[in-house]
Amino acid sequence: MKITQQSTENTLILSLDGELDASSSVLLDTELTKPEVLNYQKVLINCQRLNYISSAGLGVFISHLQQFQDADVKLIFFNMQEKVHNVFEILGLDALMTIVPSEAEATAI
Amino acid sequence: MPFLQKLKPAILALTVLSWLALLISTLLHTDAAMATRFGVLPDWVTLAAQATFAVGVFMYQRERPHPLRGTDFVGLLRRLLLGPGLLAAAGLGLHLLERLLQPATAASNPAFFAVAYTINVGLFVVFVAYTTYTWRSLVFFRASPTIRSNWLWFELLLGGTLLLRLLNWPLPAPLAYGMVGALAVFGIYLSSNQKWVAYLNRRQKWEAGFLQLSLLLCLTVGATYFLRIAQDPLLVAPKPQAAFLLLMAGLAAFYALMALLVTLFNLPTAGIFEQKREEILSLQRLSQLIQKGQDEQEVYDMLFDAAVETVEADAAWLDVDGEGREPVLSKSLNLRTEDISAIRSLLADYNLGHIEYLNNDLPNSSGFRDLDLRLGSLIVMPLRSAKRQYGSLYMLKEQTQGFDRENLGILQTFTTQTVLSIENLHLMASSLQNERVQEELKIASSVQDSLIPKNLPIDDWFEIGSHAAAAKEVGGDFYDFLHLPGKRLAILIGDVSGKGITAAFHMAQMKGIFHALMQENPLAKDDREKFPVPSKFMSMANRALTHCLEKSSFITAALYIIDYEHGGFVFARAGHCHTLYYHSIKEEVSYFHTAGLGLGIIRNDSYEKHIKNQFYDYNPGDVMVIYTDGIVEARGADQEEYGEDRLKQMLERNYYLEANEIKQQILHDLNEFSAGQPMHDDQTLLVIKFKTAQPEILS
Q1: What confidence tens digit (pLDDT) does each residue in B314-344 have?
Q2: Domain boundaries, chain B
Q3: Residue B106 predicted with pLDDT over 60
Q4: Options 3.30.750.24, 3.40.50.300, 3.30.110.10, 3.90.320.10; which CATH number does A2-101 get?
Q5: Strand, coil or helix: B587
Q6: What is the mean pLDDT of residues B217-235?
Q7: In this complex, do B554 and A93 lie within 8 Å of one another by their Cβ atoms?
Q8: Which fold has domain B452-698?
Q9: What is the mean pLDDT of residues B100-128?
Q10: Tens digits of per-residue pLDDT, A49-100?
Q11: In whole numbers, what is the pLDDT of chain B averaged over residues?
């Protein structure tokens, strides 16, 4: 799992590369726990190279969900692969989280 | 040489015979009376007898087994001295004394003289042969093959020289000197290759030196005897014989002297060898003791005692790194605690407390001078493994230049051994702990197993086949059944995120929630409200879980309430895998795609908005497959997932079978798909087949 980040004034883009499982989700959790993350208006997650997400990986997003809502930070996923999207959908997360097809749409929100 | 071995009795007989011949010829030569009666044998008979005897004795000694037993060098020398040595010295010495005290002119018994002389010659030759082959044993001790082959040349040269002398073949003077010189050089060379001396301790070296000196004295007695007897008017032996015996005595004395010198020169090294020996022995002792050490303290104590003894430290202490940052003093010798702290902080100032450090000139460093401890040398030896530091050992001596590199080496070996033992103890402790945990896991596993229903509900209206397997000892998957009044059956299936113990706890909790919520509500106004509908159940469960599920955990579940009186069911899916269904009327397999959020994701009342009920009227022959994600996410050889599509195809092919057979077919296909792959997640699979109505209801 490789996480690269890229930020503008009010947007933070995290690009996930590889499989987000129990061990690699710790990395992501560290990134999302950083206090400065809540200073952005939007946190975009680029899922183009995310091949797999385990329940532990989902747990990381779920555990930060409330915090993001409280701080009025929008969490937006884009470029999600079909099978990863399926996992979000089965769990019902698509109703809670913003998942859009492309980066353009993500930034437009 | 087996051939020579076989000849041994013959050699012995020949030797005895030749000695008798020698005796007779000497008697005839010396005793005039006998000579007149029997005549005089020619000189060559005497010389030939002498040569045969000498060769025989040497050959006999040569073929005897090596007299050295183990490393009992002193015993070997003692046997040589007390046996043939003393005998020869006594015989020769007594006769020499008799000859010296007796006036030359006085009348003497020539027969007695001849017999004594011949006996002495025999004793002396035997003694020299015995000495030579004892010496061979010593030279051969741990000797290289080169030395062994050189020995043969030495024997040939020695034998040749002696026999030439005896047979009185005139050699040109330079050649004769050359041969004797070569023998001397050979002797020095062989002496310099004696390794046995190094194996003696100081006391044994003194003893060996004394024994060698005594042997030298015996040989000197021999040399003196033959020197004196050669001029004795009574002796009418051939001159070459006397020269032969003298040369033999001379060479033997020379070699004995060389061996004595070797021993003497080795005396000063005895201390060093003994110290090394002591070091090796204490290392051996240490490693044996350490293995017996029951706890860390015992092992450290052994290390400390062994180290102090071996390097002969005047003062010492051992620090063991405790839990905190400060080292804990484990043991000390001849040092006050405040001195130790002072030295410790001094070393810490130079960052020397935890590295291998040797200082042989402490008074030269101002810090130590100020402490005024009258200590001259210091070794710091850390106890360290690849992973961590266990402490440090400090050895001190009063004199400067007190320690050497070898001390450092030996301490290093000690500490390595100690660290190994300590780590062994740790490993043993942790493996015990591990065993206990394993045992507890086994119990947990059996407890969890008891939570999974063993007796599946049986009724004529449906069949159920079930399968559950945990990836670890305990798992997070669960399913349960509950009969509700009015021919209704509640089926719960679910999956706690994560695996192992935490998941198992939540799974047990979920089972408790299921049974608690599925109680009849006595206040309900009508039958429908007596039991919560699935969506209501889910939001109640969500509320119940809010406070006990950690933030990043969630649970997916699906609750089905089958009303087999009315031939329908209602279910709610809380983030759980989609239900796979075979519709017998349409002859079609599909998934129920309903919305529904997992439990524990939203932890407030807004959850209700995210969960829906789905009603369906089933027909006989319909098949419902419910499962956890361990089934569809099982990986194949190329890391591909089993997937919903494969599962669907399996049902399309097998819907007509009985529930249990359908389950078997699916599992068979799944196992084939993921053969050789580790099981990543718990797997649960339930197959429910609805059957035709009972005849009695129809009637």
Answers
A1: 999 999 887 666 778 888 888 888 888 888 8
A2: 2-272, 293-428, 452-698
A3: no
A4: 3.30.750.24
A5: coil
A6: 82
A7: no
A8: Phosphatase 2c; domain 1 (3.60.40)
A9: 79
A10: 999 898 889 999 998 988 898 889 999 999 999 989 999 999 999 888 899 9
A11: 85
Q: B559 touching A, CB under 8 A?
A: no
Distance CA A68, CA A79 (A): 21
Comparison of pLDDT for B245 and B609, the residue scoring more: B609
Number of other residues whose CB lies within 10 A of the CB of residue A97: 17
> Could you tell me if residue B615 is left (phi over 0), alpha (psi between -120 and 50 degrees) or otherwise beta?
beta
DSSP designation for B23: H
Q: From residue B246, how far is each of A15, A75, B13, B133, B161 by CA, in Å?
A: 104, 114, 26, 19, 13
The CATH number for B293-428, chosen from 3.30.450.40, 3.30.420.360, 3.30.2290.10, 3.40.50.620, is 3.30.450.40
Q: Is the pTM of this model over 0.80?
A: no
The encoded tokens of residue B303 equal 């290390």
Planar angle of CA B49, B54, B55, nearest 5 degrees: 100
Could you say which of A22, A58, A90 has the minimum Cβ distance to residue B578?
A: A90
| Interchain CB distance below 8 Å, A92 and B596 | yes
Pair B479, B492: CB distance under 8 Å: yes
Please state, in angstroms and rounded to a whole number, the distance separating the CA atoms of residues B424 and B604.
53
Q: Which residue in the set A55, A60, A92 is minimally distant from B597, CB to CB?
A: A92
* Residue of chain A minimizing CA distance to B635: A52
pLDDT digits (tens, 9 = 90+) for B514-549: 999 888 877 777 776 788 899 999 999 999 998 888
CB B67 within 8 A of CB B133: yes
Q: Which strands, in side-by-side order, build the sheet including A42-53?
A: A2-7, A11-20, A42-53, A74-78, A98-100
Question: Inter-chain contact A22–B498, Cβ cutoff 8 Å?
Answer: yes
Q: Is the pLDDT of residue B698 over 50?
A: no
Size of interface A-B (CB pairs under 8 A): 59
Least CB-CB distance to A90: which of B498, B553, B577?
B577
pLDDT tens track for B31-70? 777 777 777 777 788 888 888 898 899 888 888 887 787 7
The alpha carbon dihedral of A91, A94, A97, A99 has a sign of positive
Please give the backbone phi and psi of residue A34, each rounded to the nearest 5 degrees, phi first: -55, 135
To test the contact with chain B by mutation, choose from A64, A88, A91, A94 the residue with the greatest count of B C-beta atoms within 10 A, namely A91
Judged by a CB distance cut-off of 8 A, whether residue B554 touches chain A is yes
| Exposure letters B143-176 (e unless 16+ CB within 10 A, then b) | beeebeebbeebeeebeebbbbbbebeeeeeeee
Domain extents in chain A: 2-101
- Collect all residues of chain A within an 8 Å Cβ-Cβ radius of residue B574: 92
β-strand pairing of A74-78 with A98-100: parallel
Contact B601/A93, CB-based, under 8 Å? yes
